[in-house]
Amino acid sequence: MRIPPAARRRLGRLAPLLGLVLLVLAGCAENYPQTTLAPKGDFARAVDTLFRSTVWWAAGVFVLVEGVLLFAIFKYRERPGGPEASQFHGNALLEVIWTIIPATILVFIAIPTVRTIFRTAEPPPGDPLVIEVIGHQWWWEFRYPEFNITTASEMYVPVGRPVDLRMRTADVLHSFWIPQLAAKRDVFYGRDNRLWFTAEEAGVFSGQCAEFCGIQHGRMAHRVIAAAPADFDAWVARMSAASAPVPVFDGDSLALAGQALFATRACVGCHALRAVDPPPGLVGPNLANIGGRLTIAAGSLPNTDANLARWLRNPQEYKQGVLMPNLGLSEDDIRALVAYLRTQRVATLPPALAATP
Ligand code: CUA
Description:
Blueprint: H1 5-26, H2 42-75, H3 92-121, E1 129-136, E2 139-144, E3 149-152, E4 154-158, E5 163-169, E6 174-178, E7 182-187, E8 193-197, E9 203-208, E10 221-227, H4 229-240, H5 253-264, H6 267-270, E11 295-296, E12 301-302, H7 305-313, H8 315-318, H9 331-343
Parallel strand pairs: 1-5, 4-10
Antiparallel strand pairs: 1-2, 2-3, 5-8, 6-7, 9-10, 11-12
Dinuclear copper ion binds next to loops.
């Protein structure tokens, strides 16, 4: 179809408007798992409050300045036969006014900013739950000294109790970030960094490494599962019981074959299947409860049999550069390993959260 030139010009003029409409409509989407604008934790709320107050100040300045500008443009525009505009240079009074006003606004922004910085840098309030967070290329390890539990990629926290994160890295710089619960904070080698937050409601919250840390930085995600205190206690109890791999039912020959493979192939050299007292020095993520987790591959793939098989077939295909090499497994081996890993399920999402995406 040929578009006449006049129509084409009209469409060309409409394009920016169309773009703007699309941008505005994009703001109406409801599912932004990593939004910073819907805080569900005290730390994130403090940052959000600060952000909003700054936006209001900025909006006020914008409306005032643009309003005066438009007023001047229209009111004093050149008209045919009109008088010549008065010619002058500088106005001390105006200069003083428009120096004092912004300086005052900056004071009003600086006071709550500094107050928030100090508040969030203080030790956490109340009786906090300590969780050690260790960044690895490219996954997050979580340890609960209070319960002697180690896990990876999915952090459970109780709603209403402050969580005190002691964070470091095993290799390069990473940055731990859970947008809806807390701000981001870098992790360093040989130095503990701290971050705390209190989840205000139950939910599954997405997080993401926020500091470029190598080729798979983009696939270094994690989830924080904020559970009602009773559900959190149940998770702790079930993970605490995971002091050995889940035994396989005698009749499940496929899973038994997978169990044998896990012990004889390279798997067991890098991964522990128990959350309690895992052998030290393992370089792969702890796999206790791998059958019951939401995600695999550091929070970047849903935990389905198909994705597990895809991962086992060749981890380098999905996540080039990870430590886990292509083990050259046969399709039969892969099926057996998937069946076995699926039996390693001690805890699943609390029913109250199961409907959460
Ligand atoms: Cu770890 Cu980016």
